[in-house]
Amino acid sequence: MNRVLVVGVPRSGTSWVGRVLGSTPGATYLREPDNHEHAPFALRAKLELPGYFYPALSAGSSARRYEQLWQAALAHPGASTSAALFLAERVRRRVSGRLLRTASRTDVRDAFQAPGRVRLGLRLAALLAVPERPQRAADAVVVKSVHAQLALEWIAQRFPVQVLLVFRNPLDVVSSWLSLGWIDAPGADPLGELDPAVASALAADLDVPVLPAEASPLARATWVVCLLTRVLQEAARQHPDWATVSHEALCTSPRALFRELAARVGLRWGPDSDRLLEQLDREGSGYETMRVSSTVVDVWRTRLSEEQQQEALAVIRAAGLGALQHQPDA
Predict the structure, then answer these.
(1) If you classify domain 2-324 with CATH, what class do you get?
(2) Calpha distance 16→95 (Å, rounded)
(3) In whole angstroms, what separates CA 63 from the centre of its chain?
(4) Mind listing the pLDDT tens digit for each residue in 266-313?
């Protein structure tokens, strides 16, 4: 069985990539089984680990529930798939999912920051939770994650996965976060979603300057985007066998590059994938996957003010990512 793991920073185009590759012949797609905001078992597994939203695991770390999560997601031998189990899982998944949806984003963040004071509803959601798994048998499974950046080595050591890293211009990522209210909404703080001890250690390892305490919400969010991007860059450098792709390149020539990408990770292209690409190439908003691909490159130019552009660029350049984005016009 072919297992493909698509990983990128949130809002970097991983859903587009995952859905299209998951539509190839003989493949099935599983979206973010490690996302604690919609998968209760992810909350249960990640609350036990360092890193908060982004589990930080070295290759030899022990993480039993996190391993169960990926064993089920990747349809790995040892993950039971009996009919009775599927029925029991559906019931538990439905109940735990409803409990999880009663919590706010702030409630969830607070659960990571203070595990001893988790709200009752979240505790019940975690207790009843079961791992997410593909909904049908297939020759290949394409799984996408926006939270596995700091655990990639750990996952790849335990499971036979083909890793695909998706990169996007940090300015476009930040502008997307801003448009969705992830940065300036009440209670929003992307930096608070990353364990401070883990963030400090990574910044030191990657030579990324630490932000001053008075940094603005936009600067804090940009710093998180840069840090996670640098982690993925380092992973790509250490693993030349892992596939990489840029969102900008895919937008420029989606059909040709998606075909090449599918072949790179051992998937066959087919007419269903061509049709899906056409269906997705239309206006969309929010969390929808639909986008007119030719219009989303450098979308930051219309979403960010001149002041916001310069503030974000200062963080990006300090993090050593100037080559990943186009500079504003002089």
Answers:
(1) alpha beta
(2) 29
(3) 19
(4) 999 999 999 999 999 887 767 777 677 877 889 999 999 999 999 999
